[in-house]
Each structure stands twice: as C-alpha cells, then as structure tokens.
Amino acid sequence: MNKIYQKTHPAGKNAGFTLIELLVVVLIIGILAAVALPQYEKAVEKSRMAEALTLVSSIAKAEQLYYMANGEYAKDIDKLDLDFPGERVNYYVNGFQTKNFICRPVREDGGWTDALAVCNRLPRETLYGIAYLKTGEVVCRSYNDKGKSFCRLWGPANGREVVLK
C-alpha cells in the first residue's frame, strides 16, 4: 500500500522525497516567511502605538482637568487623578513605565514644550515618541529610520513627525 508521500521505485522498493523536492519546499517556506514577517512586525507595532495613543490621551485629559482646577499644569503624575498601569519611574518628571512605553506629563523646559503628555517607545528614545499637544493634535515623532517607518504607518511624515489625529 503506497502512501501519498511515498514513491514506488522501479525495482519495487519504496523511496522517500528527493533532496531537490525537500529544498524546493524549504525555499518556498523561506520566501513566505520573508514576506510575512515584516508585515507581522508592522501590525504588532501599530497595536503598540494604539496602546500609546490611549495612554497619552488619558494623561493629557487628566492634565487638562488639573489645569482647569488649579490654573497650571501638573509636573508630577501623582498630582493627576489617574490610575496608571505599570511601575512608577522618574524620566524628566514622574511618570510610569509599561512593557513597551515610558509615559509622563511634559515639563516646560523639555524637548516637547508644546505637549501635555508623551509616551516614548522603549528602549528610551530609540524609535519614536507619541505626544498629545496642547492644540489637541497627537503626533508621532521618530528618532531614527525604523521609528520613521513606524510613524508612517499612521500617515505621511512631515519632517520627523506624523500627525495621528
């Protein structure tokens, strides 16, 4: 009884796959993996960016409420009425760190002077940061070419920034 993966040898013996057949199968699998892996990486990073968008929007809205109540923005995340995920860290100002991001309110003399809140992709400032600006815009600022390609997942870049909404 022959199985589908066996061939009948002219002398009546069963033979397996040839080396060429195995190499062709391995080559096809390699090509499929080379095409699928970058798309998978982009999809995963886009979901991480959506997480950062949610976190930075929450901090910014809490900052706006604090400003309405006190006439100034909070320089410490502990002053905000906010339950944050992850552990507390001090990165320029007090903030919190999740598995993928460090998020914090923005101090006036920092690099994001026009922002209320920012989440930087870990490791720190190696890929991109997502900031909620005082104008209500959310931008993705890239720090290198890989970060620029991730920011471009949301739209066309204007220099090193992409406006998300």
Q: Could you explain the architecture of this structure?
A:
The chain is an alpha+beta fold and 165 residues long. It has one domain: Glycoprotein, Type 4 Pilin. It contains two helices and nine strands; from the N terminus they run ββαββββββαβ. A seven-stranded antiparallel β-sheet has the order 3-4-5-6-7-8-9, with helices on one face. A two-stranded antiparallel ribbon has the order 1-2. The longest helix is centred in the N-terminal third of the chain and has 52 residues. The termini are far apart. The model has no long low-confidence stretch (mean pLDDT 82).
Quick structural overview:
This protein has 165 residues and is an alpha+beta fold.
List keywords for this structure.
165 residues, Glycoprotein, Type 4 Pilin, alpha+beta, 7-stranded antiparallel beta sheet, two-stranded antiparallel sheet, 9 strands
Give the H and E element order: EEHEEEEEEHE
- Measured by DSSP, the beta-strand proportion falls in 15-25%
Shape: elongated
**CATH architecture annotation:** 2-Layer Sandwich
What is the tally of helical segments? 2
User: Regarding CATH, which class?
Assistant: Alpha Beta
Number-wise, the strands total: 9
